[in-house]
Every structure is written in C-alpha cells, then in structure tokens.
Amino acid sequence: MKVNVMAIGAHPDDVELGCAGTLYNHVRKGQKVAIVDLTEGELGSRGTIATRYTEAAAASAVLQLSYRHNLKMEDGFFELNRANILKIVQILRLHQPDVVLANAPSDRHPDHGRAAALIRDAAFLSGLIKIETEWEGKPQEPWRPKRVFHYIQDRFLEPSFIVDVSESMEVKMESVKCYGTQFFSESNDGAPVTYISSEKFLDKIKDRASLLGKRIGVTYGEGFISDTNLGIADLDQLLYPEIA
Ligand SMILES: [Zn+2]
User: Fold this and answer.
1) Centroid of ligand 1 to alpha carbon of 149 (angstroms)
2) Which of 87, 131, 192, 216 is the most exposed place for a label (fewest CB within 10 A)?
C-alpha cells in the first residue's frame, strides 16, 4: 500500500488546485500517488457532500491516483488536537509516503493554515514509536515522511522551489474542472456566485502557473514552500531546465 507521494488538503479540490500538476508528473513516471482530504467540504456555498464525493472521485480517476481518503474532520472548525493528529498518523503509516504535500502555511481560507500545521505535526509524530495506532485491528509501524512541502494556493507566497508542470497542465485543469459545482460551469446557472465560481477563476489558475513557469524558463510551474533547507549532491542537479 506504499505510495511515493501523498498530497493532503483541508477541502476536496485544494490538492487539485495547488499541486495536481506535480502529482501527475509522478504518476507519469510510474509512481504511486495518493490524496487525503481532511474534510468533506460541507461548508462550501455550492454543491452538497454527495456531489463533492462524486467530483473528487472523478478528479482521482483523471489523475490516476492509487488511493484517496476522506478523514471527515469538521469543515471550518477542525482543530490541531490529538484526535485529528492520530487520524493523519494512521494514513501516513498505512501508505508510507516519502514526500507529503500539505496546504499553504497561510492563505485566504483560514482552514488552510491550520491544516498546514496539523499535517506538519502529524508527519513528525508519525515517526515516534511510542505513539501507537492500529489499522483494521492491526498495530502499525512508525513512519516519518522524508520531506513535507507546502503547495501555494490562493494568496501568493514566495516559493522555495518551482516544479515544471508544463507536460501535466492539461490533466491538472481537467481534474480541477471535475469540481463542477465549485467552479464555473454552464450547467450551474442559479447557484450562488462565489469567489471561486466565476469564469475568470479558472483562467487565474493558468495565469499563476504561467507566472511561476516563467521564473524557471518553462511554460507552467507549481510553487512549493519548504520549512527546511534542501540539499543537492552536486551542481549538475541545478542545470534544469537547460535554457532558462
Ligand atoms: Zn480549501
């Protein structure tokens, strides 16, 4: 059940908006990728819990995910506490990801910053042998991911590094559009108009990716924040892309 990369988001669609291109890069390499949604997005102004599940399943199929879980925390009100940390620890130990991608450390939606802290703490505590958890009645081994990075969401934050997602951008947009009740769609006439449901919002996602891509000399990019310094073996690893 091991995966290479696990992306965790407060709401279904956070991961698609923030880092679906990067996830699909890893899928294209033949790696296993999982998404974990902390809440069911039940406070969303548009759609229902049922439609959000259907939409998330469709997006998972587009991204060819190996697993997707929903931890059913309370949208808008989940806290950094023992119960919620242990829910994440269970999933980390179940799938043993090398890399975890988490919400932005601060953002327009207050859930995102709280999720970032919760995920970061859970990733550390998951490695402690004296924290005991079970999955389907069986005790779990400790597991600490090698890296935790934060994807940039609505508010622009200066990235620590940028991933070239030019080859995955089309699939990313396809996964985002699976959330038909959240974003602009001709069939949603009459639903309340929100910040993210205007036709222009989808264009803005591409604009952001284009801005980040330009910084590294490629068509589209996704930015990530690292809380720690990143090491490299030698300078050759920094020669991508060849002409910037
Ligand atoms: Zn969100």
Assistant:
1) 17
2) 192
Question: Which of 14, 4, 131, 137 is closest to 66 using CA atoms?
Answer: 4
CA of 103 to the centre of ligand 1 (A): 8
Residues facing residue 23 across a β-bridge: none
Near ion ligand 1, which residues have CB within 5 Å?
10-11, 14, 109
Angle at 46 between CA 41 and CA 52, to 5 degrees: 45
Q: What is the pLDDT of residues 160-175, one digit of tens each?
A: 999 999 999 999 999 9
Pairing of strands 99-102, 134-135: unpaired
Angle between helices 82-95 and 110-125 (to 10 degrees): 60
Domain positions in the chain: 5-228
> What spacing in Å lies between the alpha carbon of 42 and ligand 1's midpoint?
11
d(CA 198, CA 182): 9
CB under 8 Å to 235, separation ≥6 — which residues?
A: none
Distance (angstroms) between ligand 1 centre and the Cα of 13 equals 7
Q: Domain 5-228, CATH 3.40.50.10320 — does that match?
A: yes
The pTM for the full model equals 0.94
Residue 235 Cα to ligand 1 midpoint, Å, equals 37
